[in-house]
Amino acid sequence: MFQGFQAEAGDFFWELCFHNEREWFHAHKERFDTLIGMPMKELAKETYALLLQRFPLLEAEVHVSRIWRDARRLYGRGPLKENLWFSIENPNIPGDGPSFYFEIEPAVFSYGMGFWCPRAEQMEVFRNSIDANPAAFERLASQVAGMKDFKLGGPFYKRAKGEFGETVNAWYNRKSIYVFHEEDFGGALLSPEFPQILCDAFTKLMPMYEYLLSHATLPNPGR
Question: Cys-Cys crosslink for 42: which of 2, 104, 168, 193, Cβ 3.0 to 4.6 Å?
């Protein structure tokens, strides 16, 4: 079971930032497995199980990222990622559908929900849903805005796509959208209660996740 990350996990990530090399990692792989690799898998598994207990009809899978970068996308960087994450998402959604996530980095950790690389037509579907019923979406967006532990992120379009007031505009005029909570490394991250904390957070965001799942995804031609 997940017992909490150790404080030394942050130190390992910092070391990796300065020694992003295959040889260094292979020499320290046992430390990685103990401090980061196994705790991350345990955290993902427990959080997913808790979420399914609350939402037994949730159609989703959990995915834990690899520490190795895709060799085709190094772009001058080292072969290893300097962060690690897991996501919980619907496997039947084409392209980039909404997902819950947790991410750990050397100095911070974060968690939340959203989508990061949606297609232009996907965002158009999302905006069309707001056009059809802006009041309904504003009620939902206001609930999220009232969650003081979360912030709304994602780049804005250079030219606004529409005008619906501050609350809705914050969603309507972004190229990608995510709601996130971020903290300095430590705190709850070191506690065995952290899976429950993540589950509670994802539960709060579930109404918006379900809206995005229904109104911001493209038809799957294979179904």
Answer: 2
| Strand spans (E) along the chain | 61-64, 84-89, 99-104, 108-115, 151-153, 177-184
Run of H or E including 131: helix 120-132
Alpha-carbon span 194 to 208, nearest angstrom: 22
183 has pLDDT over 70: yes
Q: For residue range 21-72, list pLDDT tens digits in order.
A: 889 989 999 999 999 999 999 999 999 999 999 999 999 999 999 988 776 6
Q: Give the integer Cα–Cα distance in Å for 2 and 46.
A: 7
CA angle 158/115/142 to nearest 5° reads: 80
Distance from chain centroid for Cα 122 = 18
Q: Where are the domains of the chain?
A: 8-215
Contact between residue 108 and residue 183 where contact means Cβ atoms under 8 Å apart: yes
Per residue in 65-113, pLDDT tens?
998 877 666 565 677 888 899 999 998 876 678 999 999 999 999 999 9
Q: How far is Cα 4 from Cα 17, in angstroms, rounded to an integer? A: 23
Alpha carbon separation from 147 to 110, 177, 205, 206 (Å, rounded)? 15, 16, 9, 13
> Residue 180: how many CA atoms within 13 Å on its side-chain side?
18
**Do 102 and 43 contact (CB within 8 A), yes or no?**
yes
